[in-house]
């Protein structure tokens, strides 16, 4: 007996001296600046090699993934890979970040400081900057923090100095009318390789002149779109990609957009006036990109080729204004609305189910009891613009509103049913049911402890030869079966407890999101079609689709979540978890 006890104590001592080591799963962040052609120490591959070597030399570090931002400035933190890495941090997938040096992480001094001194410590994230010899886990990193902060400020000032010099250079080129690539040149002009000023693109210029001629001849923009499509003329975006003026089997012509035709008719650059400095951004002034007012843009005459004579362009502007006034008069805001909203509450969410185009909203004149009204009707915008790209379909605003009210009411009733069923399962509140489950778990744990005590006594009796080997083995197997059964019971209780907590949390989220509209949908004295608001539609729906057979499909934002909750409650009901 003494030897057995000594062996047990020796074994315990051996286990106690083993140190506890925390392993960190790192995200390796690498970045290369916009427009950079570096191939040296700052190239992505060299950054990755350096970080890989550092991790391999530290046994407590584990590489999870590389997060690469190629062509992103360090002064802006809206970067694709950076945001993905931060999402992984918040989800607990990684608990450490490593960079080559602080400039790769970012060059905005205040934001970088917030991440290192506030965000990462709060999230429990270990941050390592290899070339700066900085590791947030080290207790002596306070001095390095100061140096790191100063270096971050230097990186920010360096970026702003570069921005200032680049901005001055760009402005001089704009004042000379120089082009920055073909993308900045209007349809009908081109920039040849090695040249800085635009030249005439004869094939595209002919199309521009045809559009102007059709318009002055009385053709509407919709008719011009049909003419171009019938002649298989490629829109500007397709033309730039393919270099083809007309479509073929390999490149079928897309429909021209109304805004493209309108921009050609309104653009003064077709008269030979070169307009530059349309947008501006300034890092050293901390100004984001913004649009310059038309009257403040740089206008240079005699630099670009003329596609439309000035007198023709002026006639086009007069005709555009005449048609605009005619449309305004037809619109006539003095005419009252009939069963419609004054604003489009379905903007951005109502699309054609056949072609995917957004649904346009137009006024339709009707007479009710001898008085004229405007009724809002939705049409497929693709059919409105081209007549051939999609089948004709329409629905009045009132019809659509009445459908949505019924659907929203049904969803609220479903959420209410979920609440009732959850209360029935718990025989009261979820909190009370979880308290009962915790008592059950403690009871199981006590039974488990009793079996372990009996096991030990069984072993002692065997050592004292009070039991035969067969009796000892039989008793041991019986105890193990009992323990396995208790482990299974405890696991099932924990699963039910966690499931109820998740259900309650998700249900509470649904109630908060949806039931603020309960009074509007059920208790309002308004007619059903008047009960909707734009906020209500945005909360309930992701998308609304209208098909050729006038079938309306409503993609509800919480539909899958509600189905999942019904499924989970059915499982709970099958287990008969009743107090």
Task: Considering the chains and any ligands shown, give keywords for the structure.
579 residues, Rossmann fold, Hect, E3 ligase catalytic domain fold, three-stranded mixed beta sheet, 18 helices, 15% strand
Would you give an account of this structure?
- This protein has 579 residues and is α/β, with parallel strands linked by helices.
- It has three domains: 19-164, Resolvase, N-terminal catalytic domain (Rossmann fold); 182-320, Hect, E3 ligase catalytic domain fold, CATH 3.90.1750.20; 337-579, no CATH class.
- The chain has 18 helices and 17 strands.
- The longest helix is centred in the C-terminal third of the chain and has 46 residues, at 469-514.
- The relative contact order is 0.06.
- Mean pLDDT is 78; it is low at 7-20 and 282-286.
